[in-house]
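hiii so um. not sure if this is the right channel but i have a protein structure encoded as tokens and i wanna go backwards to a sequence. like what aa goes where. can anyone help
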């Protein structure tokens, strides 16, 4: 079933309403859908690299808006459906890990996990279930999702098709390096500010 869903998602890249499909997938992936929007984002950018940053913007905005649905599922419907979604993806152990550090480092968890291939729905549903501050959630989601999608867009815009396999196979490595650069930037800013 997952392979069929994967193939149908990829086939949307050639559809005349592909941008709307990208927005829809980015939205629902943040709460329930198992296929990441990168699967559609990559071929759309390669079809017209001039639209790379527009498409990354579509992905980011739709994903953040969809994150509010995930948050609402966790906040209002954890007992009814939220825990079932997390459990269906086999992520209950990760959910329990989040629970331990969320109060102190919730924004960082959202930023860090939102950039990685860990299903973003885990982050959004957990944020709602833990009743994390909604404004902080929105800001952290915007940072993490824009970093992820704009990084992919920038690499594809600059290098085109040759980078496709690298990005698809090593998305975790790419986002981890970007994440380390972002954290290093914050550390440098904090150090400069203190001295």
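sure thing!! here u go:
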């Amino acid at each position: 079933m997952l392979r069929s869903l994967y193939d149908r998602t990829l086939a949307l890249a050639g559809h005349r309403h592909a941008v709307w499909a990208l927005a829809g997938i980015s939205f629902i992936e943040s709460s329930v859908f198992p296929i990441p929007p990168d699967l559609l984002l990559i071929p759309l950018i390669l079809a017209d690299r001039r639209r790379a940053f527009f498409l990354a913007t579509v992905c980011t905005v739709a994903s953040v808006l969809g994150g509010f649905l995930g948050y609402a599922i966790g906040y209002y419907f954890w007992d009814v459906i939220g825990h079932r979604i997390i459990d269906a993806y086999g992520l209950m152990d990760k959910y329990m890990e989040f629970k331990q550090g969320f109060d102190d480092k919730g924004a960082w968890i959202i930023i860090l996990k939102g950039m990685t291939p860990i299903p973003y729905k885990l982050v959004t549903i957990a944020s709602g279930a833990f009743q994390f501050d909604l404004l902080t959630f929105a800001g952290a989601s915007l940072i993490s999702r824009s970093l992820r999608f704009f990084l992919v867009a920038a690499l594809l815009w600059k290098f085109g098709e040759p980078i496709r396999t690298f990005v698809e196979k090593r998305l975790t490595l790419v986002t981890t390096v970007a994440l380390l650069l972002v954290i290093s930037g914050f550390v440098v800013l904090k150090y400069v500010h203190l001295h």
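oh and The mean pLDDT is 79.
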